[in-house]
TrEMBL record:
It comes from Jeotgalibacillus alimentarius. One of its GO terms (cellular component) is cytosol. Keywords: Oxidoreductase. This is Aldehyde dehydrogenase. The keyword Oxidoreductase applies. Pfam families: Aldedh. The active site is at E249. The keyword Transcription does not apply. One of its GO terms (biological process) is carbohydrate catabolic process.
Amino acid sequence: MIKHKLYINGQYTESTGDEWIDIVNPATEEVISQTPKGTEEDVNKAIDAAFEAQKKWEKVPSNERGQIVRKLGDKIKENRETFIKLLIEEQGKPQDQASDEVDTAIDYFHYMSEWARRIEGEILPSDRPNENIFIYKKPIGVVAGIVPWNFPVFILARKVATALIAGCSIVLKPSQQTPNTAAEFTKIVDGMDEIPKGVYNYVTGTGSTIGNVMASHPKVGIITMTGSVGAGTKVMEAAAQNITKVNLELGGKAPAIVTENADLDLAVKHIVTSRLTNSGQACTNAERVYVQESVAEAFTKKLTEAMKQSETGDPNNETGLDFGPLVSKDRLDTVHEMVEKAVSEGAEILTGGKPLDREKGFFYAPTVLGNVQHNSSIIKEEVFGPVLPIVTYKTLDEAIEMSNDTEYGLSSSVYTENYHETMRVINGLKFGETFVNRENFEALQGYHAGVRKSGLGGADGKHGLDDFLVTHVAYMQYKTE
């Protein structure tokens, strides 16, 4: 069994602590590796190394940084099958979905490398004679990156590639449940002499120890975390000690609005995809469906049948699966408790509603719930599992109002062939992103960001890169003679 090490200042190192965390394959329940339970001392060493290395890294010409970021993507591509295998083992994704995630991570490094010559400042006219105002964009400094367990390869790419191209150094903390792919990426960094020591550092452990130290450290320029609202709240509290900038992608409760003018087959196809991707463990997944009364019966029948027909199995050995296991026994129990509570509040199980009867693994049956009231707990709380509650509505204004009635505000979707309905929904919804007649997944060149408790700041594209930069204004007086 593999036992990982930390990676600090360009060297593999043992943790100063003596505790270990078991990494469990969620499909087989086998312990597949162990990772150190890092300490505050470990984190401080990593941040100190990153702080010193960043001073030199930001002076490396941006086109050279771009070449290095692209090479990281190339190296992941060379080791693509290894990353896919590790991702399936530690996270439980079906092979097609694991392949897609790894390929998206490769694309992300390649895409972000293209920003090397696109970080732009401005020159403004002054109110004074013989003066210009220069606006520079400079790296924010040390990035403390906390990666979640649900997309451990893609979100690693999102944080590392953006930090490096901006001229920042990074201390990366993977999830304590899925560190194996990050450990494999660290091998790539260790083999690249072009990356100065200390620019990339890798520490493992619990969020309560590692994450809080990272967020409260005075040498950190930005803490970027993808995770739960509870964890994000703790990060903000810790970051407040030094007024450190935070970039948070937190929970979601994405509504899917289906109108009487929708292509129902298309809606069913994409809503099922948006629910079963990663077994429902994504903050962008469709979490609740609002369907117009006139088509509710036909839509619900089609959706229920599609969920029934979805296939699962051991993703380590089988292909063509629609969904895999949930990441842990705790997650399995939580999802089932939420379904049982929904039933106690009057919901009807149309399919699923229980863990699958398998010898091993944390598998939950794809579930459709009918007769759900908008004020029920299953509509208000993030499920993070393969469960779809359906609510009916009369008017589009009613659907928009119910969709907005949430503490979250990340993703949303609408299904209609009516242009006017589309525009009404887009302009009425209070979410960071709306998907029209398609599944819920963002583009690298877009901007993935939420409102309310779904987070602060965002990722992807030029707006995502901007979060890793600070603005510096210089007032340039000059002589005319």
